[in-house]
């Protein structure tokens, strides 16, 4: 399959219209796979639940013995006290086992969810750029946060309910039949009514739950989008409009949430009424039996207690059905991400060729490369480019000419559709991502900084790179004085995206990263486009220091950045139309000369495009 075909099939697979229906069996398969390493804990939960509820269910029997065997015969005193102490002891035992069972279950459940989250994050970070082109980051955030949280409810609520309430129900039925088979038979008459009510409510409860969840997701996505675009919103004075849209989303969620709560309350209270009706029936039938002396008072008391407890597990299990439904939806969403293979694949062990950084020369070749983001629109067409080790290359061209695409292919963010991209004569598809990204360093226009100190941002949280190495790198690129001016110097904590630093300062930090990580090939994608001339001078100096001994490719809109390059490439509509030194290209009088003339006329060094 070609890459284009692969991209298309991946796009189709993730389109909403093609979403598969969540299936119970695949949900269980995934969950049981994750639960397997914790089977001892789950066995412990079952044993504790059995012992806990057995102790709980013994309590009415103790009272029955106290009434029928002691009170009814006029016995009291020490034997009643002994029964009272046994009752208390059993209550303590029930508490202890329930406590143990909850702790074990929470431990296993939370460990499983942490593992799912870890797997998901690792998988997402290995995905190719094409995956991020077609997947909304908000939906991935929901996968990692909300969906895993929903799955956690499966372990901490659904499973617990199935085990505990299931066992409780069976034990209650056994105890009721052993106390009085006839009365127990009458109680069972209520079961069909319970099932009918549960079935009637089930789909209504599920739809209210799903509606509330989807409205909450929309509200979260809307808020996240607004936070990241707050600068734009304020500069266009859109606060009121956005507030209006937020209010509407908020109201929608509020309505859906209230509807869900109302339906839950209605369901629970209907069950209460059924329970009370069964109780009245038991008291009436049992009371007649007691009066007719065919039943003892204590037995009736125990029966009434069990009937009250009988409805609790049924109610719980029915409620868990909804949670299970939302778990299947969450599992399906997570599975869809986990099953998506990266379009850019690691080479197999046999075809792998190492690119050891110690012996790397930094030669780059694009041989007859054709590539398009979509099957029907090639962006690069049959492109040939040979870059010598240590050469400094400048790339110019109009908007959309394919300059950034060239860089993306060299980083293997996408695979070529035809031809090859080589480093030191090795096809980069045969190189591991680790080796490739150690060989190629990228500095983007708006370098990304993480929440953390300056030190951590330069060494990207790698503990094996020392503080001294970081400081030396910052001195080398000329960032040291600027960092010392910050409130806590190298330990200054940067907030997310590096706000608090200017664009130029962020650039200098990303240059220091390059010095620390030592890639042999350096790429700058319009790194100086947004800088004032003072800062640009600083960045220029840093660039010439960092470019020493490295193959450097600079995409620039500013002439000054690339005028002194060994070679300037001119790209137009996906093709290399001219190349040579600044002087050669001017002498040629082609597209570059025209771009240069435009730039001079406008009084700025900014190239059009
Ligand atoms: N992720 C993408 N998905 C689909 N099409 C894309 C994507 N990135 C770029 N393109 C398209 O590919 C073509 C080349 O884009 P590219 O970003 O390489 O151009 P460029 O020369 O770097 O332009 P600029 O100077 O404006 O950044 C454009 O038509 C663009 O719309």
UniProtKB/TrEMBL annotation:
Its main location: membrane. It is a multi-pass membrane protein. It is found in: Cell membrane. Pfam families: ABC_membrane, ABC_tran. Residues 1-17 have a biased composition (Polar residues). Residues 364-598 form the ABC transporter domain. InterPro entries: AAA+_ATPase, ABC1_TM_dom, ABC1_TM_sf, ABC_transporter-like_ATP-bd, ABC_transporter-like_CS, P-loop_NTPase, Type_1_exporter. The chain crosses the membrane at residues 41-67, 79-100, 158-177, 183-205, 266-287. The keyword Membrane applies. Keywords: ATP-binding, Membrane, Nucleotide-binding, Transmembrane, Transmembrane helix. One of its GO terms (molecular function) is ATP binding. Residues 1-24 are annotated as: Disordered. The keyword Transmembrane applies. CDD domains: ABC_6TM_TmrA_like, ABCC_Glucan_exporter_like. Residues 43-326 form the ABC transmembrane type-1 domain. This is ABC transporter ATP-binding protein.
